[in-house]
Amino acid sequence: MRSHTYYESMGAARIMAQIIDGKALAKEIKDELKIKIQSYINLGNRAPSLRCIIVGEDPASHTYVRNKIQAAIDVGIDATTIKYDATLSEDDLIEAINSLNTDRNVDGILVQLPLPGTMDERKVCNTVAPEKDVDGFHIINVGQLCLDMPTFVPATALAVVEILKRYKIDTFGRNAVVVGRSKNVGMPIAMMLHSDGKHDSQLGMDATVTVCHRYTPAEQLEFFCRNADIIITATGVPKLIKATMIKPGATVIDVGITRITDEQGKTKLVGDVDYEEVSKIAGAITPVPGGVGPMTVAMLMHNTLQAAQRLARKN
């Protein structure tokens, strides 16, 4: 990883942030997984298998699933998409999931969210067998994460932790702010950041964590961020995190992703962070796109191999 560089501006030295290259890191992890999966197969096991369920015709969801399937195939996972019309009933979806739960040739099950408004997402996610829940959304896996037990961790949250570890960002005793409290991203990130690294999950990062959300007053959000060594934001609010909110040298992980139309009328993806200005002050920063996104897909592949290994030992 390249070191910090410095430049003189207005007579004062300022830090140019280290750009955290999520694409390169994801490739590194997928290359490692490819070797591990081949070794697993060489021991006499079948290839790990993943089934991705998608309901409806949401274009973004179909793009995400295609990316996941391609990444799985690239590392040697047997991956298939199961598509249903938006008219599918919740009961029929649950029946389909239960069929996969009992299929010994299926290791991982992923239900692409969001689901049609007629369905209860929590009920559907809890239908997936915990041992095949590679998204980490089942209440048993969520509970085990909160208790620092080995479990499946939601891929985006796991991607953030893996970025911090592989870029050797020190978290021990550091002040960390998580902006956003969603149950699939903000909450699991905060849980791992503050957890004891000596516990069984081996995911704890021993940071002092503050969680901010939509009802945190703007002046308090700025106060907490300015005192943070690490900021992780996942709100979907473009340019929420500004340069005035950053402690010089802080690490900024941008999980947010929003499609906007620029002044030229072109659509583009942006994060929660004012990247151009914050990168002049932060010590390290993830771009959007090309930061957390590719890593999320890589960690889903990691979870799928883990599911296959656990089920093989069990069977």
Describe this structure in words.
The chain folds into two domains: 90 residues, 3-Layer(aba) Sandwich (Rossmann fold), CATH 3.40.50; 140 residues, Rossmann fold (3-Layer(aba) Sandwich), CATH 3.40.50.720. The longest helix is centred in the C-terminal third of the chain and has 23 residues. Helices cover 38% and strands 18% of the residues. With 315 residues, the chain is an alpha/beta fold. Strands 3-13-10-9-7-8 form a six-stranded parallel sheet, sandwiched between helices. Strands 5-4-6 form a three-stranded parallel sheet, with helices on both faces. It is built from ten helices and 13 strands.
What's the quick description here?
By secondary structure, this protein is α/β, with parallel strands linked by helices.
What is the strand and helix layout of this fold?
Layout: E1 5-9, E2 12-16, E3 18-19, H1 22-42, E4 49-55, H2 59-75, E5 78-84, H3 90-101, E6 108-111, H4 121-125, H5 139-146, H6 155-166, E7 175-179, H7 186-194, E8 208-212, H8 218-226, E9 230-233, E10 251-254, E11 258-261, E12 267-270, H9 275-278, E13 284-285, H10 292-314
Parallel strand pairs: 3-13, 4-5, 4-6, 7-8, 7-9, 9-10, 10-13
Antiparallel strand pairs: 1-2, 11-12
Helix pairs in contact: 1-10, 2-10, 6-7, 6-10
